Amino acid sequence: MKWQNVFGFVTVVVFAMSMLACNAAKEATQTAHVTAVKAMVIRSSDQVVSHTYTGTLEGERQAVIRAKLSETVQKVHVREGQAVKENELLVSLDKTGPSSQYTQTQALYQNAQKNYEKMDFLFKQGAISETEFDGARTDYEVKKASFDAVSRLVDITAPISGTITAVPVDDGNQVMVGQVLATVATTARLRLKFGVNPEDLPTFAVGAEVVVSSQSMPDTAMGKIGAVASSADLTTRTFQVEAMVENAQGLYRPGMFVRVSAVKARLTGVIAVPSSAVVVLDGKPNVFVIQGGTAHKRTVELGTDLDGHVIVNSGLTVGDSLVTLGQSYLDDGFAVKVVQTEEVSR
């Protein structure tokens, strides 16, 4: 009898432990199916739809000075960023080089000048005829014009007043005909050129404003469309657009590549969600919303892409709790635990 009591006690204990183990396993299983997610509360907002292109800046007035002789650079007189005036000396080439003809032309000019001065004196004294004097003067003027032309080939000056935006040569460099020696540009206003796809062309009408930005600049600049090509470029199939950009502070410089944004439309009271919140299931865009700790799949109709966000035309309503992280691990009816909630959509 005593042995039977012990046996009964052991049976009760084993049964109790089995029930506890089953309950623990059930709880563990339930916990394992709860997915941690991040969510956001849907709010309506106003959005701006923009087109973005890339373009290149030039000076409003710009002069690219190229070598007209193949000679050695004797001296570079300016540096990049320096302000210069019209006719200021920029670069000097070797005057004794074989292709300059500077020394020979200078000697002929100086001889003609001396002869002209002598003939001028004699003519005023009545010692020579007017024909002889005119011949000496003509010879002097021709030799002077030749010397001036050669001088401009070896002493290169600024054709306009502005800022040196590029000096791609150094003292001692051997340059070839056509090689760029310097670029001078005005920078208070810059000329922006970029190509636009045919379907976006109406956005870039003359007078429309654009916003210019660069990764290397903290501030944006405003511009206004000044010209739109009436025909497409045969190579790129885009339409050339030109805008004038205000640059009074000198933040932007000619030669820079920049981003150009123009407003296509302004949307009011729309729902914009992160593009990453949308998952494609069975070929259709879907999102997951949370109700009572459970994820529910909803098929949505998408609208305009907003560079990282997208407009949802249908399938969501204001106040919905949208899963923004963890949706790739969900299916309809999964239990979820929200670890972070955002209050705004964008």
Number of helical segments with 4 or more residues: 3
Q: What is the approximate shape?
A: rod-shaped
Q: How many DSSP E strands? A: 22
- Helix/strand-derived category reads alpha+beta
Q: Mind summarizing the main beta sheet? A: 6 strands, antiparallel, barrel
Strand content: 35-45%
**Mean pLDDT rating:** 87
- Kindly report the spatial arrangement of strands forming the biggest sheet: 2-10-13-12-11-14
Low-confidence stretches: 1-17, 19-31
Order of helices and strands: HEEEEEEHHEEEEEEEEEEEEEEEE
User: C-alpha Rg, in Å?
Assistant: 40 Å
Query: What is the rounded distance between the termini?
Result: 78 Å
Fraction in helix: 10-25%
Task: Give keywords.
4-stranded antiparallel sheet; 40% strand; alpha+beta; 23% helix; 346 residues; disordered N terminus
In short:
With 346 residues, the chain is of the alpha+beta class. It is 23% helix and 40% strand.
Describe the 3D structure.
This protein is an alpha+beta fold and 346 residues long. The chain has helices spanning 2-32, 102-124, 130-154, and strands at 34-41, 45-59, 62-66, 73-76, 83-84, 89-93, 155-157, 162-166, 180-185, 189-196, 209-213, 221-228, 239-246, 257-270, 272-274, 279-281, 284-291, 294-299, 301-305, 309-314, 321-325, 335-342. Strands 2-10-13-12-11-14 form a six-stranded antiparallel β-barrel. A hairpin with a 2-residue loop joins strand 17 and strand 18 (294-299). Mean pLDDT is 87; it is low at 1-17 and 19-31.
